[in-house]
Design goal:
By secondary structure, the protein is of the alpha/beta class. The protein has one domain. Helix 5 links the parallel strand 5 and strand 6. It is globular, with a radius of gyration of 18 Å.
Length: about 230
């Protein structure tokens, strides 16, 4: 067993012990029916609350990025009773466990005022993630510690975690808006994406899963990380 396999097995076992369910891209965390249902709910949503519920019921939609690596999508984990992120998303690869702090804002939100200033919903989303990062600076050991030891069981998390604000729809954004977003994302080290982006990500993973199956590729430790092939 190589070092990565050993580490992957350790992370999977610890996450399971903490009650965190894993999403498996190669086993079909999303399919066309689920993507269609998400798109219908998105088109009907007037704020983020129904989408929060949809993602809690179908966390695979939030498991971003291609690659047959293990992922965990954790809804509303309390950070010391002070903050409750909408989601924490973990992705395991050869670099370790990579965390993303996710804040949902309204799909109907406009991002900027006429004079180019971030609107209230966007400011709130960015501020929330920075607050969570500040909490993690002071409480990293508690966040990482096993739940059996009165911690949160968030292996490897710290204040350098990626940030992601999901807000608005793509058709709400102008070229000027995108330029402003690029500047904000660089400065805040937070991705700002539309809900339509999640549609694209999910559809890409469906295609990726088909490629894996065709190649009978190795996936993660539950799906035979140690060398066997897809069933």
């Amino acid at each position: 067993m190589n070092d990565y396999v050993e580490y992957a097995n350790y992370v999977a076992a610890e996450m399971k012990r903490s009650g965190y369910a894993k999403q498996c891209v190669a086993r079909g965390d999303v399919d066309e029916q689920l993507v269609t249902a998400y798109e219908a709910d998105l088109n009907a949503a007037s704020d983020e609350r129904p989408l929060q519920r949809f993602f809690e019921d179908h966390p695979g939609i939030l498991a971003q990025e291609l690659g047959a690596n293990c992922r965990w999508v954790l809804p509303q984990v309390s950070l010391g009773g002070r903050y409750v992120p909408d989601f924490l998303v973990a992705r395991l690869d050869s670099g370790g466990v990579r965390w993303t702090l996710v804040e949902l804002e309204s799909p109907t939100a406009q991002l900027f005022t006429k004079d180019g200033q971030p609107r209230k919903e966007l400011r709130k989303g960015l501020s929330q993630i920075q607050d969570w990062r500040t909490w993690l600076i002071a409480n990293r050991d508690v966040a990482r510690r096993s739940r059996n030891e009165q911690g949160l069981g968030l292996i490897g998390i710290d204040h350098m975690a990626n940030g992601l604000v999901i807000i608005g729809r793509r058709h709400h954004r102008s070229v000027a808006d995108q330029e402003r977003l690029n500047s904000l994302m660089h400065r805040e080290r937070i991705q700002i994406r539309s809900y339509d982006w999640l549609l694209e990500e999910a559809r890409d993973r469906i295609r990726f899963r088909g490629d894996l199956a065709e190649a009978r590729a190795v996936i993660c430790e539950d799906c035979d990380l140690q060398g066997r092939t897809l069933r």
